[in-house]
Specification:
The protein is an alpha+beta fold. 18% of the residues lie in helices and 43% in strands. It has helices at residues 2-20, 24-28; strands at residues 37-41, 44-51, 54-61, 73-80, 83-93, 96-100, 110-116, 123-127.
């Protein structure tokens, strides 16, 4: 009985650490492959890169392996200053969704990414892409 209890305790400790491995704080300290900001959404990681009037989202799994964006639809809701802009996202490459719209780059901007992949539940993540880490 003692052995079973110890085994269950070890199992719980090992697998509970994975739940904390992908917090926003941890992801903010992780170097993103394309220089953007990383967030977890379901079983995926989303990397957001914003440039003047352009939004790019890279889709990977938790191990950083590219996930196909083919057939995906999405929207980036950009909140910058007092302006709210909806930017439609469409597949642009293997694991990339892109969109363009008129918005101002500001340090306090917030971006909400909503993506639906074929046959999967919708993904959503919130970003503060220009805040200093």
């Amino acid at each position: 009985m003692k052995r079973l209890t110890l085994s269950l305790l070890a199992f719980t400790l090992i697998f509970s650490q994975g739940a904390f491995a992908h917090t926003d704080e941890v992801l903010d300290k992780t170097a993103a492959p394309h220089g953007g900001q990383l967030r977890m959404a379901g079983v995926h990681h989303l990397e957001l890169v914003v440039k003047a009037n352009e939004v790019t989202v890279y889709l990977t799994d938790h191990a950083g392996k590219s996930q196909p964006a083919q057939g995906a639809t999405g929207t980036a809701t950009v909140l910058s200053g007092k302006t709210k802009t909806a930017v439609p996202l469409a597949p642009a490459a293997d694991n990339v969704l892109k969109g363009s719209g008129k918005f101002e780059l500001a340090p306090d901007m917030k971006v909400v990414i909503s993506i639906t992949l074929p046959g999967q539940p919708p993904l959503q993540a919130r970003f503060t892409p220009l805040q200093k880490k």
